[in-house]
Amino acid sequence: MFPREDVTREKWVRFVRRHRAKWQPSKTSVLCYVHFELSNFEQRLDLNLGEGSSFQTKRWSKKDAVPTKDCVQQQENALSSREQRMIIRHASKQLMTSPEEPKRSSSQF
C-alpha cells in the first residue's frame, strides 16, 4: 500500500508519474516490490511448530522506503500497454456503435 506519511507518499507519486503524468493514487494503490532495493524491506521468519511443521518468511517494506528501480524501458514513440488497451477499447466501442452499412438491393449488382 502507498505510505500515509505525506513526504514519502509524494516521493512514490513522483516515481509513478515519471511514466504516467496524470496518475493519482487511490486507497488501494500499490507498487510492485521490483521497484525497490532489497535494503528497503524487513524480513521475518515464521515457524509453525504444530502438526505438519513448516516455516515461511514474510517481507514488508520499511516505512521510509522509496521506489528507485525504474523497470520501464523507454522506446521512442512507443505506446504503453495501458495506452494500447485504451485505443483498442475506444476502437471497439466505435465499431459497436457505428451504424450498419446500408443494405444493397439486388439491382445494384
From TrEMBL:
GO molecular function, one term: DNA binding
Keywords: DNA-binding, Metal-binding, Zinc, Zinc-finger
InterPro entries listed in its UniProt record: THAP_Znf
Domain THAP-type: 1-70
Domain of life per record: Eukaryota
The protein, known as: THAP-type domain-containing protein
Species of origin: Stylophora pistillata
